Amino acid sequence: MKDVLNELYGVIKARQAQPQEGSYTCYLLDKGLDKILKKCGEECAEVIIAAKNEAPQELVGEICDLMYHLLVLMVSKGVPMENVAEELEKRSQKIGNLKEFHQTDKQS
């Protein structure tokens, strides 16, 4: 999975550096942060609805849409994939009870 996300991130970065006419990614990057955030919010809501409707294939599609828009957001804001991967790795190594985890999480 990591390779697919890295490849998609690379494609989005390439579109940012060399815009292509008719590219949805370029459209989002051109419209800016408000449009990207709007799409992230919409896709998040669609993930919730698909999960609630117990529609497994629809849920997969909506998760993919959300992940794509989050990657566009990352590129737009200059957040490298490595930073997210490192943070996820750190979080996966946390040991302790759930209450402590959430207290620590709220402080960061």
Structure notes:
The protein is mainly α and 108 residues long. It has one domain: Helix Hairpins (Orthogonal Bundle), CATH 1.10.287. 81% of the residues lie in helices and 0% in strands. The chain contains six helices and no strands. It has helices at 2-17, 24-31, 33-52, 56-77, 81-92, 98-107. Helix 1 (2-17) packs across helix 4 and helix 3 (33-52) runs antiparallel to helix 4 (56-77). The longest helix has 22 residues, at 56-77. It is globular and about 50 Å long. The two termini are 27 Å apart. The mean pLDDT is 90.
CATH superfamily: MazG-like
CATH class: Mainly Alpha
| Relative strand content | under 5%
| Cα gyration radius (Å) | 16 Å
Q: And the CATH topology?
A: Helix Hairpins
Mean pLDDT score? 90
| Whole-number total of structural domains | 1
CATH hierarchy: architecture: Orthogonal Bundle
Structural class, please?
mainly alpha
Shape: globular
Strand elements, count: 0
Give the uncertain stretches in residue-range form: none
Gap from first CA to last CA = 27 Å
Helical percentage: over 70%
Tally the helices: 6
Largest sheet: none
The string of secondary-structure elements, in order, is: HHHHHH
Give a concise summary.
Helices cover 81% and strands 0% of the residues.
Keywords:
single chain; 108 residues; mainly alpha; Helix Hairpins; 0% strand
Sequence-ordered SSE layout with sheet pairings:
Layout: H1 2-17, H2 24-31, H3 33-52, H4 56-77, H5 81-92, H6 98-107
Helix pairs in contact: 1-4, 3-4
